[in-house]
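Lab meeting, item 3. Inverse folding demo.
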């Protein structure tokens, strides 16, 4: 199969400005790709995002988001698959991963193991005829690798997470080993590679013998609605967000710390939350004496999130540091809180320690699991609203000068346009 021949000089010129971004899931679950597409569109390029959808509720958020954007989206709609097809796909996935562990990394095994819907994406790529493809997550890695092999399209991989470290156990853990095999096979063919933190870049350089990883932080564009830091307040409003609310994400520290606090505060948790998890959180809040001040909010679109967070005063970045990827990565939280004008309380992982060292006045760090230390830091802000106001102002300055998507996007565009050339 090959890319259809262009029919005119004009069309060939346009094709050199087309960029396809391939995701492994829902559009609204990948804010980094959204920002990349926005930057490409603002530069005058034509962007197409290829995603896949499994959950109808999140698909509705995807639809609302894409209607506001100047670029196109095509979805493989997996939630429409019947039970028999899903079962057969699951069986093929398990068999393909077993084959990869035995050393068989071919197009067929890669597609079955990571992206069984990818022929839909490859057809869309052949139709769109991009000058460049950008892969996100392991399914995007596989599609980029195969599109390059089939069509000769140059491609870039964006390593937001260190996938062979997403589970404990190193390469003795089968899922880590399969991820490692995919990266080892595909990365040598990429025109350029991006990492979302210096520690991910270092780990990938060591594992894959490429020393050209470009570190592009996952910062966020400025939002006018979130640009003003509210004045000092006697009330401390603690905020935490994730697409999924889970107690394995460091929230136990927050719940235990809140039970120790004395003063006027609220705890706001935002994300999709199972009934079981919600009941456990509320029960712990009841036992800690702050049930009326513990609030659960649903997940929403990623754009506008800084404005949603802006009414709060403190952002909680509570990574545990396990598995290894959570130590290496720099999460969306710790870069979005400063943009919203929130002081930051963060666990001391490698990635988060590095961020806080770039702007130490915007908050404090503590050892994961040390709820007493978290409570001590928060209590200082409860007792001294002026100190909290200074930390919030420092956070906002850091968002404007250090953690600026406008600055990071210029690096991104230079890299992508270089790959297109």
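The presenter then showed the designed sequence:
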């Amino acid at each position: 199969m090959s890319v259809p021949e262009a029919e005119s000089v004009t069309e060939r010129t346009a094709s050199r400005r087309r960029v396809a971004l391939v995701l492994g899931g829902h559009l609204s679950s990948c804010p980094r790709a959204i920002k990349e597409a926005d930057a490409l569109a603002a530069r005058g390029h034509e962007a197409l995002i290829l995603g896949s959808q499994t959950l109808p509720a999140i698909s509705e958020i995807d639809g609302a988001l894409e209607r506001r954007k100047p670029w196109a989206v095509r979805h493989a709609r997996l939630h429409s698959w019947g039970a028999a097809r899903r079962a057969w796909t699951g069986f093929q996935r398990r068999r393909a991963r077993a084959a990869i562990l035995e050393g068989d990394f071919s197009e067929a095994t890669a597609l079955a193991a990571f992206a069984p819907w990818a022929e839909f994406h490859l057809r869309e790529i052949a139709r769109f005829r991009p000058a460049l493809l950008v892969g996100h997550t392991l399914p995007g890695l596989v599609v980029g690798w195969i599109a390059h092999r089939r069509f000769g399209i140059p491609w870039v991989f964006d390593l937001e997470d260190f996938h062979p470290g997403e589970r404990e156990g190193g390469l003795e853990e089968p899922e880590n080993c399969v991820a490692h095999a995919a990266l080892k096979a595909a990365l040598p063919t990429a025109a350029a590679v991006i990492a979302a933190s210096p520690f991910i870049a270092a780990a990938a350089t060591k594992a894959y013998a490429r020393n050209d990883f470009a570190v592009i932080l996952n910062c966020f564009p400025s939002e006018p609605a979130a640009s003003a830091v509210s004045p000092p307040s006697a009330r401390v409003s603690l905020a935490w967000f994730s697409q999924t609310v889970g107690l394995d994400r460091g929230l136990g520290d927050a719940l235990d710390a809140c039970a120790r606090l004395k003063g006027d505060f609220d705890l706001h948790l935002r994300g999709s939350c199972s009934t079981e998890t919600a009941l456990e959180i509320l029960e712990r809040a009841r036992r800690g004496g702050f049930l009326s001040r513990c609030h659960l909010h649903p997940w929403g679109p990623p754009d506008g999130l800084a404005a949603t967070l802006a009414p709060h005063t403190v952002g909680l970045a509570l990574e545990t540091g396990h598995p290894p990827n959570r130590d290496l990565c720099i999460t969306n939280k710790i870069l979005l809180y400063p943009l919203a004008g929130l002081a930051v309380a963060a666990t001391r992982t490698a990635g988060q320690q590095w961020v806080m060292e770039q702007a130490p006045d915007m908050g404090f760090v503590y050892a994961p699991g040390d709820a007493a230390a978290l409570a001590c830091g928060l209590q200082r802000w409860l007792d001294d609203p002026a100190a909290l106001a200074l930390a919030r102002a420092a956070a906002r300055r850091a968002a404007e000068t250090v953690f600026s998507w406008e600055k990071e996007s210029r690096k991104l565009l230079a890299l992508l346009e270089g790959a297109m050339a």
